[in-house]
């Protein structure tokens, strides 16, 4: 395993949030190979270095990653006081330490990864790693070649920077009750809040259904019914790690 930041390692091991872990470091309660560690950004190798907190050795949990076919109606979060969250879909014994890799909106369906591996999640979410995320988007109105060209050039969605180039293609157009409906496929390499919906809004169109079908070289397993999940195979995990640079 490659090196990871000490604060991330400790947080992943369940010792608290990143800021709680920083407190532990400040209080001098953490040792790396027998020496007191104070710097949250210190790099450690979990396979070689021995980390103790309050005199107890911290053993790294085995990294696990699940793919979930997220149904609408669930928040991409570990807990919420008011609404069901994606972790509720997992059996209780499998939930420990897991969190969603990024977010899908509550009404978005499809491929959501759940892991206990902070470094893997971070690598997949970093815009620097250009991890492809592909969505099926059903859009009210006629999506045309000009829209595809605009998406490819990057759009102003009200952020400081324009979006990175996105690949958009139209799969089919049908006549709905109130006008045409376009079935499209879009691939983006970022994950800004409501990004796909905001990109279509920027060209004057509204997304009426959204489903993620692929992420980081991994396709949604279509044998998974909505709400079902499975562990990634070793080969799938390796592929993800390559995308994530981990
Ligand atoms: N873009 C969106 O607008 N929503 C999602 O859930 C994912 C990408």
TrEMBL record:
One GO biological-process annotation of the entry reads:
enzyme-directed rRNA pseudouridine synthesis
Record bears the keyword Hydrolase: no
**GO CC terms:** cytosol
Q: Which UniProt keywords apply?
A: Isomerase, RNA-binding
Q: Which Gene3D superfamilies match?
A: Alpha-L RNA-binding motif, Pseudouridine synthase I, catalytic domain, N-terminal subdomain, RNA-binding S4 domain
Superkingdom in the source lineage: Bacteria
Q: What class of enzyme is it?
A: isomerase
In what residue span(s) does the RNA-binding S4 domain sit? 4-64
Q: What is its EC number?
A: 5.4.99.-
Spell out the InterPro entries in the cross-references.
Answer: PsdUridine_s_RsuA/RluB/E/F_cat, PsdUridine_synth_cat_dom_sf, PsdUridine_synth_RsuA/RluA, PsdUridine_synth_RsuA/RluB/E/F, PsdUridine_synth_RsuA/RluB_CS, RsuA_PseudoU_synthase, S4_RNA-bd, S4_RNA-bd_sf
* GO molecular-function term, one example from the UniProt record: RNA binding
User: Quick check: keyword Isomerase in the entry?
Assistant: yes
Q: Pfam families from the entry?
A: PseudoU_synth_2 (PF00849), S4 (PF01479)
Q: Which family does it belong to?
A: Belongs to the pseudouridine synthase RsuA family.
Report the protein name in the record.
Pseudouridine synthase
Species in which this protein is naturally found: Candidatus Merdiplasma excrementigallinarum
């Amino acid at each position: 395993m490659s090196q990871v930041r000490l604060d991330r390692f400790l947080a992943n091991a369940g010792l608290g949030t990143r800021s709680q872990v920083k407190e532990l470091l400040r209080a001098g309660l953490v040792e790396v190979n027998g020496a007191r560690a104070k710097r949250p950004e210190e790099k450690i190798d979990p396979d070689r270095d021995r980390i103790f907190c309050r005199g107890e050795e911290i053993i790294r949990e085995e990294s696990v990653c699940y793919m979930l076919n997220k149904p609408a109606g669930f928040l991409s979060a570990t807990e919420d006081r008011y609404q069901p969250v994606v972790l509720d879909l997992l059996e209780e014994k499998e939930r420990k330490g897991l969190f969603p890799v990024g977010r899908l909106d509550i009404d978005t369906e499809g491929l959501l990864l759940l892991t206990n591996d902070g470094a893997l999640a971070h690598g997949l979410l970093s815009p620097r790693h250009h991890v492809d995320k592909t969505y099926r988007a059903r859009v009210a109105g006629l999506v045309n070649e000009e829209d595809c060209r605009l998406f490819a050039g990057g759009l102003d969605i009200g952020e400081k920077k324009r979006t990175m180039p996105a690949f958009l293609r139209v799969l089919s157009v049908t006549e709905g009750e109130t006008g045409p409906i376009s079935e499209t496929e879009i691939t983006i390499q970022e994950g800004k809040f409501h990004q796909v919906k905001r990109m279509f809004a920027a060209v004057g169109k509204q997304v009426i259904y959204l489903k993620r079908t692929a992420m980081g070289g991994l396709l949604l397993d279509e044998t998974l019914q909505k709400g079902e999940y499975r562990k990634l195979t070793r080969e799938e995990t390796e592929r993800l790690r390559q995308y994530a640079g981990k």
